[in-house]
Specification:
Elements lengths: L1 E2 L4 H10 L25 H20 L8 E7 L4 H14 L16 E6 L10 H10 L31 H7 L3 E9 L3 H4 L28 H8 L5 E5 L10 E4 L5 E4 L8 H11 L4 E4 L2 H6 L7 E5 L8 H6 L8 H12 L6 E7 L1 H7 L3 H21 L5 E7 L2 E2 L1 E3 L38 E6 L25 E4 L5 E2 L3 E6 L9 E3 L2 H10 L5 H4 L27 H11 L3 E2 L2
Parallel strand pairs: 2-10, 2-11, 3-18, 4-5, 4-10, 5-9, 8-9, 14-15
Antiparallel strand pairs: 1-19, 3-17, 6-7, 11-17, 12-16, 13-14
Helix pairs in contact: 1-16, 2-16, 3-13, 4-14, 7-8, 11-13, 12-13
Keywords: Magnesium, Metal-binding, Phosphoprotein, Signal, Zinc
InterPro entries: Alkaline_phosphatase, Alkaline_phosphatase_core_sf
GO molecular function: alkaline phosphatase activity; metal ion binding
Amino acid sequence: MTRRPLTAVGIAAALVLLLPNICDSAMAPKSESHFPVPSYESPQWWVNRGRADLLAAKAAASNLQRGRAKNLVFFLGDGLSLTSTMAGRVYKGQLQNRSGEEAQLSYETFPQIALAKTYDCDFQTSDSGATATAIGSGVKTNDGNIGVNQDVIRGNCTTYDPSKNLYSFMHYAQLAGKSVGLVTTTRITHATPAAMYAHSPSRSWESDANLPAGTDKTKCPDIATQLVSNAADWNVIFGGGRTNFLPTAESTIDYSNKNSSVSGKRQDGVNLINRWRNLQSSKMRRFAFAESKSQFDAIDPANTDYVLGLFATSHLRYQLDNEMDPTYQEPSLSEMVDKAIRILSRNPNGFALFVEAGRIDHAHHDNYGKRALHDVLELDRAVTRAMGLTNRADTLMLVTGDHSHVFTVGGWGLRGNPILGRVVNSDEDRYNSKGEAVAYDGMPYTVLNYADGPSAAIGTPRKNLTDANTTAVNFQFPALYNYDYESHGAEDVPVYAAGPSAYLLHSTHEQSYIGHVVMYALCVGPEASVYCADEEAPTTIGPYMTGQPLPRSASGLTASSVLLALAYGFRIWVES
């Protein structure tokens, strides 16, 4: 790698960033803030904050964490776009009685960030099956495919054979002797988790009841069957979807719905939960199965080597609904992550844990903005929990989304405008009797909106939200045009990274590149003979940054700080 000298563009960029008008915008409305600006936010405070960030960037750039990772914790927020992160950050701050914009989510403290391009082989706007396959295997595929390459036609078993399988870094980590865990708030057979262990022409083939008539079940087994056959040696499996593992002749309890009885879905008469139990018994293992919160709580990480937890008949509940139900609680994402790491970390060879915060996506699909943000905040808590249970020196931790959503934050809201509310400020001085901003149609509008989804009116003017309770759990935020199921967004998604090899995520990448970074860091996978030949000495590194508030000193910006910005903030690095 060679260093090129600072360019004129870099100098100009540095000088622009050091100008004092950080908060000004020629197009922004000139109104008094909706929320009192914190007293410490003086002009000099912003200078000090910039200087502190710059010093931190210098330290990070000169101390890139090289070497390989013993452990992996991979968080995938399904549908976690930049907008979802920003709105979640603001909501977190507002729940703490702050304006919100200045808040920070746990993973926003990670030293590396990149962007991932989410298109797949045949779609501009991808689905979770193709994106999870790309992330896990390092190879892009067709929309709706699970763990197979682009030569397989979606829904067509005749185009599939095992030579077209794509294997995830989780598969390779297990082969390398690491303990492996999979945690999700969706059905464990849903698209994202399935891509870690299954190979199927269709993400919809979750149980044999979903297979089209005439499908060769030996050639194309359903995804639940594949979990038991392909992941029986995985140490931790937590999620939902219990009915996909039970035959129609058997029933199970839906604990979240007044302990009602629900029949299984399998048509082959096989109880896959019993099959999993029998496999563990045959290998003389210490194992546990759990389907309720009390059973989950009873699992002792010190004395359990293998565990299957199916905590819902379908998806686990939204975090907000789980918090509000006084009668029954499902394990939360952060609780499942905590227990998983405590079990997995007992392996001296290390572990790999894949975690999906899957219901962010589902809430967006139904235009449930509040539910989506509460699931973002639960992801934030889960990452915090993982940071406290691992060592950054030997653990690669990543947080990313698989795709975006057509979800926006806007409307010229003043600082502190409630993120779940209507816009208060009007840059054109148009207000209703409540003092809320109104559009040209005389009706108010919300901060959060969707381009499409079920909340949109059909053939009539948009809904009048003057008296709507936009903070209600079931409030559906406005959409432009009606669609049964709000669509995904096609823009790039962020990738946040910390730990060994995290520095390799540094630019705009193909989403499939993420899988290569993980396999390089763990020294596993089909390219291991190449990747592992490039041995890197480990870098001494401190603990995870915890997002401590920056000093509020009034000391001035020094010439050395300016030079530091020029020297480190805008130097161009290229690979020779």
